[in-house]
């Protein structure tokens, strides 16, 4: 294919002009990437990009003004550039939902993992689409990027092109990337190409060349090209005088370049609608008398898979432990993407970022690991909530009852922390009814992610009372024989059987509320909440206590790290024992505390 480098140069200058105009009006933004990398993004959209099946991810999300300018010129009508970084206008970093924006980016490295997920989705759905991702030096320094890069190389994603804006500069000075980035990429299974990032002929040759695996194009650029601070850390942000920006805007504007963009825009259509399927309808499975909630989850999931659940499951090397690798699943492999299960390897953060990419491409993604390792995933989980992605996280081994593995593997603050993320469902079910409800609710979501938090240890089977308002997120699971309630015990998950045992010992006037979803319960009217939380309220959960004071007068929780030992012994050592709780409550009652 012959390309006209002169016309492409004029088109990229229009991108620079429009992006700089937006930054100038906002008096805020990142000028360096606009001046240095506009030729790269122009090459993608003007020459290679097929809007019917391809995707572009700006992992270097600080270049948002450049992306918005390009999208507007390419016909996506992303929004008024004059509103850039203003209240109610175009956001400071790209956000999913804007026309043509494939992913929410900005936290560096995330976009690379998203692009990997999108490339898997294209293979799985057989769309023939190519995923182009523009990353910065900073992206390549992030751990999630290296996890995702290794994964992409292992899976030979030949429909993924990663373009590196290699200007050697970060905010604090010289970019501290690997000494030899291309060597690292080759070792990870990528085909490496080099190009002058401001030479259209070299860019075309490097991007166009096919390979048997993912392609990495090292694009040598100059940060802030053509400005007075070119090639210095100052060029990264908003460092130019108003007069210099105005001069650059005028210099870059090109009528012929705009005409060429208009011709391109007439051929552009916006595609990529999400198509999440429904939840298979299964009856409540039977369960043994003594069973862990992770086992209950595996039983429910197996039945849903048998009934045709359309999702890609996965785990960070723990599928057997988290009970998500059930009968009916086939592994996705480098030469066969038709399966429905991914072994991500020990790459929790990349798993969560790749799941986001799958969800951006309209695939229901489910990933699993131990709850304590959700800390590794949190950056991507937060972006899933921000972007309204209905991914599902299965997080097992949910408390100090993990036992002998010790405090490094015993989650304490994780449940409370996940509940603090806006737009995040957090379920901690106690029985098969609640487990099935958590799965149905999570898989029925279209606009928010869900965490299903499950126990490793077996717990006594308890039944949800008939007529219990489980959809409310909290309900009375154990009723008092007396109509006069002076004490309500609130619990979740494995602490619900414990709370019921305590209530039985304390006698009449005591009820137990199971609250498998705090956020769902919070959304009820105050009358219902007061009906559930009657009398003195004591919350019991084997995790950080602070969050429960929203509902409870007292909390029995865990506010320090656990210890090594048999799980049941550690559990009792931290006060999760019927005799100890009953004695403490009776002492408070005797002294008139309630």
Task: Tell me what the structure shows.
Strand 6, helix 8 and strand 7 (215-220) form a beta-alpha-beta unit. The mean pLDDT is 95. It contains 21 helices and 20 strands. It folds into 3 domains: 5-265, Rossmann fold; 290-460, Thiamin diphosphate (ThDP)-binding fold, Pyr/PP domains (Rossmann fold, 3-Layer(aba) Sandwich); 470-590, Rossmann fold (3-Layer(aba) Sandwich), CATH 3.40.50.920. The strands form 6 sheets. Strands 1-2-3-7-6 form a 5-stranded parallel beta sheet, sandwiched between helices. It has a 5-stranded mixed beta sheet with strand order 16-18-17-19-20, covered by helices on one side. A 4-stranded parallel beta sheet has the order 11-12-14-13, with helices on both faces. 39% of the residues lie in helices and 14% in strands. Helix 2 (31-48) crosses helix 8, helix 4 (110-125) packs parallel to helix 6 and helix 13 packs parallel to helix 14 (374-387). With 594 residues, it is α/β, with parallel strands linked by helices.
Which fold does the CATH topology of the largest domain refer to? Answer: Rossmann fold
Largest sheet data: 5 strands, parallel
Under CATH at level 1, the class of the largest domain stands as Alpha Beta
Low-confidence stretches: none
Q: What is the CA-atom radius of gyration, in angstroms?
A: 27 Å
CATH 4th-level superfamily of the largest domain:
Thiamin diphosphate (ThDP)-binding fold, Pyr/PP domains
Q: Between the first and last Cα atoms, what is the distance in angstroms? A: 82 Å
Level of helix content? 25-40%
Domain count, please report it.
3
Mean pLDDT: 95
Strand fraction:
5-15%
CATH architecture descriptor name of the largest domain = 3-Layer(aba) Sandwich
What is the number of helical segments per DSSP (H or I, 4+ residues)? Answer: 21
| Strand order in space, largest sheet | 1-2-3-7-6
From the spread of the alpha carbons, the general shape counts as elongated
Structural class by SSE content: alpha/beta
Find the count of extended strands (DSSP E, 2+ residues): 20
């Amino acid at each position: 294919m012959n390309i006209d480098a002169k016309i492409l140069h004029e088109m990229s200058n229009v991108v620079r002009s429009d992006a700089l105009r937006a930054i100038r009006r906002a008096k805020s933004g990142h000028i360096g990437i606009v001046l240095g990398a506009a030729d790269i993004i122009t090459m993608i959209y003007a020459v290679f990009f097929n809007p019917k099946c391809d995707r572009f991810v700006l992992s270097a999300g600080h270049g948002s003004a450049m992306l918005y300018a390009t999208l507007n010129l390419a016909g996506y009508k992303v929004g008024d550039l004059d509103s850039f970084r203003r209240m109610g206008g175009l956001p400071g970093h790209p956000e999913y939902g804007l026309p043509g924006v494939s992913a929410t980016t900005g936290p560096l490295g995330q976009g690379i993992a998203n692009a990997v997920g999108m490339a898997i989705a294209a293979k799985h759905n057989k769309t023939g689409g190519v995923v182009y991702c523009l990353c910065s030096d900073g992206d390549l320094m992030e751990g999630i990027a290296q996890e995702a890069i290794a994964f992409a190389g292992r899976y030979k994603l030949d429909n993924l092109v990663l373009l590196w804006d290699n200007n050697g500069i970060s905010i604090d000075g010289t970019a501290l990337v690997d000494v030899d980035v291309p060597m690292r990429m080759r070792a990870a299974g990528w085909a490496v190409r080099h190009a002058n990032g401001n030479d259209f002929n070299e860019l075309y040759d490097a991007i166009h060349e096919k390979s048997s695996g993912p392609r990495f194009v090292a694009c040598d650029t100059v940060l802030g090209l053509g400005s007075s601070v070119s090639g210095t850390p100052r060029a990264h942000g908003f460092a130019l005088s108003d007069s210099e920006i105005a001069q650059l805007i005028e210099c870059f504007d090109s009528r012929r370049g705009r005409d060429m963009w208009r011709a391109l825009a007439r051929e552009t259509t916006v595609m990529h609608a999400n198509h999440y399927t429904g939840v298979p309808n299964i009856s409540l499975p039977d369960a043994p008398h003594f069973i862990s909630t992770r086992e209950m989850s595996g039983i429910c999931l197996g039945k849903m898979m048998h009934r045709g659940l359309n999702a890609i499951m996965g785990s960070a090397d723990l599928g057997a432990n988290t009970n998500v690798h059930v009968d009916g699943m086939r592994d996705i492999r480098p030469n066969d993407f038709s399966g429905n299960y991914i072994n991500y390897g020990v790459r929790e953060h990349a798993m969560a970022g790749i799941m986001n990419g799958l969800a951006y491409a309209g695939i229901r993604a489910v990933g699993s690991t131990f709850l304590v390792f959700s800390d590794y995933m949190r950056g991507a989980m937060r972006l899933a909530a921000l972007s309204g992605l209905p991914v599902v996280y299965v997080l097992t081994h949910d408390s100090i009852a993990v036992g002998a593995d010790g405090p490094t593997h015993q989650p304490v603050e994780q449940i409370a922390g996940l509940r603090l993320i806006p737009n995040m469902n957090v379920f901690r079910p106690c029985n098969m009814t609640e487990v099935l409800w958590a799965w149905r609710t999570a898989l029925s979501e279209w606009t928010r992610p869900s965490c299903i938090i499950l126990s490793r240890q077996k717990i006594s089977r308890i039944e949800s009372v008939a007529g219990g308002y489980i959809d409310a997120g909290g309900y009375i699971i154990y009723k008092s024989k007396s109509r006069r309630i002076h004490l309500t015990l609130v619990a979740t998950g494995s602490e619900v059987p414990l709370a019921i045992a305590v209530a039985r010992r304390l006698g009449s006037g005591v009820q137990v509320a199971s609250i498998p979803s705090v956020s769902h319960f919070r959304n009820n009217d105050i009358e219902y909440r007061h009906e559930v939380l009657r009398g003195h309220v004591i919350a019991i959960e084997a995790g950080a206590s602070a969050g429960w004071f929203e509902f409870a007068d007292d909390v029995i929780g865990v506010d320090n790290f656990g210890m090594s030992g048999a799980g049941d012994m550690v559990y009792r050592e931290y006060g999760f024992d019927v005799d100890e709780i009953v004695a403490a409550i009776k002492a408070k009652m005797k002294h008139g505390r309630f």
